[in-house]
Amino acid sequence: MALLDVKNLCVDFHTDQGTVHAVRDISFSVGESEAVGIVGESGSGKSVTMYSVMGLLAGNGSITGGSVSLNGQEITESAFPDHKAYEAAMDQIRGNQMAMIFQDPMTFLNPVVKIGKQITEVIKNHQKVTDAEARARAIELMGQVGIPSPEKRLNQYPHEFSGGMRQRIIIAIALANNPKLIIADEPTTALDVTIQAQVLDLIRDMKEKMNSSVIMITHDLGVVASLCDRILIMYGGKIVESGSDREIFYDPKHPYTRGLLQCVHNPEKKEKLKPIAGSPPDLLKPPAGCPFVDRCPEAMKVCKLYMPEVTTYSATHQCACWLEEANRRKGENHG
Ligand code: SF4
Ligand code: MG
């Protein structure tokens, strides 16, 4: 059984302009101690997917279809008798069985509460411990995430830490209750390049030490390269390709995945990065066919009309694109 199982998930947002279909029928799972990357541009639905899993959708957002289960337990609101029961269950799950590392530590940390108290509170919310035990655990966690002289720094406020150190504190808080699943949403985007690498190393180390599963959400394929076993590529609210790290990096099938790979900075090559021209589809009126059609260098007539069929290349590698079908037909005609 997978640790996390998402099936046919659909998420809508109600806005003044109409209904935005942000996530459109996606399915994936995450196994025990597996690291999965969800990669796509902003607006692709990657963060919305994970906020849905955590039960943290904004007030105008709702899951309109599908299921999410953690360890075999259904955790979408529709599985609970009422909203109160759902919130109570999620309070037990969040920060305990699954924890989230956010992009901007300052939106998560309380600026007027000392760091030590913010860590011990998360521990005490889920574990029966004395104040002294919680404090000792906080010091241990701060040491583990590489914060020097934790005993002294326990009494400091968030603004007294650098951006990189604050992200380490967020990681310490996420790890506080030994979660089975850690969800990191663009955890290094706000940091400079050297610190980014250190924070990614830390997440990798912690994952290995604690044997937990990780979902890494990012717009940058480079970020998931060394961390993730499996990668999902999202575009226009759909998963357009999924594969092992090797399959995605060495045998990408979807034109969008290939485009993303050209945006990855390679320090060995002095090539210029090629951003993908154009902008993502308007999910107020999702396209009938392939969501990438307006930007795809290989688009065909069929792409605009019909949603691409999914081709399976291996047990881990799938891609939704009409090219495979077109190539097969060409082969038939010539053979
Ligand atoms: Fe491009 Fe067509 Fe494939 Fe979409 S289905 S990615 S438009 S070739
Ligand atoms: Mg996002």
UniProtKB/TrEMBL annotation:
Keywords in alphabetical order: ATP-binding, Cell membrane, Membrane, Nucleotide-binding, Transport
PROSITE patterns for the chain: ABC_TRANSPORTER_1 (PS00211), ABC_TRANSPORTER_2 (PS50893)
Membrane-protein topology: Peripheral membrane protein
Record-linked InterPro entries: AAA+_ATPase (IPR003593), ABC_Ni/Peptide_Import (IPR050388), ABC_transporter-like_ATP-bd (IPR003439), ABC_transporter-like_CS (IPR017871), Oligopep_ABC_C (IPR013563), P-loop_NTPase (IPR027417)
SMART domains linked to this entry: AAA
UniProt xrefs under PANTHER family: DIPEPTIDE TRANSPORT ATP-BINDING PROTEIN DPPD (PTHR43297:SF2), OLIGOPEPTIDE TRANSPORT ATP-BINDING PROTEIN APPD (PTHR43297)
Protein name: ABC transporter ATP-binding protein
